[in-house]
Design goal:
Blueprint (H helix, E strand, L loop, with lengths): L1 H24 L5 H20 L7 H19 L20 H4 L7 H20 L2 H12 L4 H8 L3 H26 L2
Length: about 180
């Protein structure tokens, strides 16, 4: 019986691994995080199978688990507020990343909206050119300084600032619609 279960899991992993990896890769910029998420998803499949949890639609279940792991990853990275002059909105008020997110303590609807926003953020980050995405993630999500990034990459601080500015403008534009939708 256990051998049959292991064989079925192996078939599912073989069949779904490539598509699931591409799904995660489009939403997560770091290849190491992509592999970690993929491993977590398949570990959870093995655990669910061992606990005899009924899974009706295995493909849908795998993608749901992957999406939840992506959201968990972005939560763990504790986004910092938009800290420089790019964090000023049209009314000259400071725009903070946390201000765009519904409170996780506000109930299931707010938690769903927050998860949806994180999913959209991952998608929008993936749309950015590589240099802009890397600078934005390093500065805003990882809290690294421009000086540190400049020393690491050999790119001037002004160029890094410019790349981040374009990234913030794109993110602000793309996330504004979803923010407006959530606050209606």
């Amino acid at each position: 019986m256990a051998l049959e279960q292991d064989q079925r899991i192996s078939e599912v992993v073989t069949r779904e691994q490539s598509r699931l990896r591409n799904f995660v890769r489009r939403r997560v910029p770091d290849p190491r995080d992509v592999e970690d998420i993929l491993q977590d998803v398949f570990c959870e499949l093995v655990e669910a199978n061992r606990l005899l949890m009924p899974i009706d639609h295995i493909t849908g279940w795998l993608y749901r688990v992957a999406r939840n792991r992506i959201v968990d990853l972005f939560r763990k990275k504790k986004p910092e507020s938009f800290s420089d002059e790019d964090g000023i909105d049209d009314d000259d008020e400071r725009l903070r990343f946390e201000d765009l997110l519904p409170s996780p303590d506000a109930g299931p609807e707010a938690l769903y909206a927050r998860n949806m926003l994180f999913d959209e953020l991952a998608t929008v980050l993936a749309e950015l050119p590589k240099e802009q995405r890397e600078v934005f993630i390093a500065h805003e999500l990882e809290g690294r300084s421009f000086k540190e990034l400049s020393q690491e990459t050999g790119v001037s601080v002004n160029t890094l600032l410019s790349r981040k500015r374009y990234a913030v403008l794109h993110l602000r534009e793309r996330l504004r619609d979803i923010y407006d939708e959530l606050t209606k």
